[in-house]
User: What shape does this take?
Amino acid sequence: MRRFKYGWLVRNAHVNGASLIFCALYAHMFRAMYYRSYIGKRRRVWLVGSAIYVLMMCVSFIGYVLPWGQLSYWAAVVITNFINAIPLIGRWLKLFVLGAHAVRDPLLRRFFVFHCFLPFVLFFLAVFHVALVHNSGQNDVISNRTPAIGSRVNMFPVYVLKDLVLVGLYSLILCALCLAFPNVFSNKLNYEPADFYNTPADIKPEWYFMHYYSVLRVFESKLAGVFVTSLTLLFIVVLPYTHEDLPSDALKDLYKPSVVVLFLSFALLGILGALRLNYWLAVLAKLCVCVCLSFFVWPVIARLTRVLAATLVTWRC
Assistant: This one.
C-alpha cells in the first residue's frame, strides 16, 4: 500500500474500520440480548445475525494473517495448532486449511482468496438480515414506547434518521483514527516481516478476539480450550431456543441483570487476554468463563429441575 498515493489512508481505514465494525457488532448483540430480540418471529433474525458474527470473525482473522508480519504469522501458527487438537479430524482439517505441512505461501494464497470472496457473502447475509428485521419488526426502546399494543413504528423517518446519526458519528471517529491515531488498534510489531525462526515474546490477536484468546490459553489442554470456545459460539446460536420461554417470573426478573453480568464478564475476559497470565489471573479468567456459560445454561437447568420435580410429585402420588 505504500507504493500508491494515499495507500496509507486506505490501509488505516481498512484496519480501523474493522475494529469499529466489531465495536458496533458487539453493542448490537448485547442490546439484542438485553431486549430479548430473538423471540417469536425474530428468531430467524437472530440466527442470520449469528451467522454474520461467525463469518465476520473468519474474515477478520484471515485479514489479520494477510499482512504476513510477525504477529500475523505466529497467530496463524497458534490457531492452526489448536485446529490440530480437534479429535479424529483435527490432523486432516489442519492439512486442508494450510495446504501444506506448515504455515507457508499456500496458506497465504488461500486466505487471500477467501478474504476477497467472503465479504460478498457477508453483504448478502446483511441484506437478508435487514429484510427479516423489516418484516418482523424491531424490539428496542423506540418500538417499546409505542402507545398502542401491537402498533408499529415506521422505519422512516425514526430509524433511518437514528441510523444516519450513528453513521455520521462512525465516520467522524474513523477519520480521527485514520489521521491522528492510526495505530491505536494495531500492534507495531506486526509491521516487521514474518520471521520463521524468531518467536515474539507475546503473541496477541486483535482486541475483538481477546476474550476467545483468554479462554483458549486459560486451559492447560488445547482440546478443552477449543471445546469451551466452540460451546460458547454454539450457545450464542441456540439462544432463541434456550431463552425464549423462561420458566418462571423470577427468572424473567433476573434476565436483564444477568445480561449485564454477562457483558462485564465478556469485557473482563478481553482485558485478561491482553495481560500476562499468572495463577490468580487464570482463576479469574476461569470464573468469567463459568459466568458466561452459566448465563446460557441456567434456563435449561431450571426447566429440567421443574420437569424433574413434577415427575417426582407424580411418582409419589
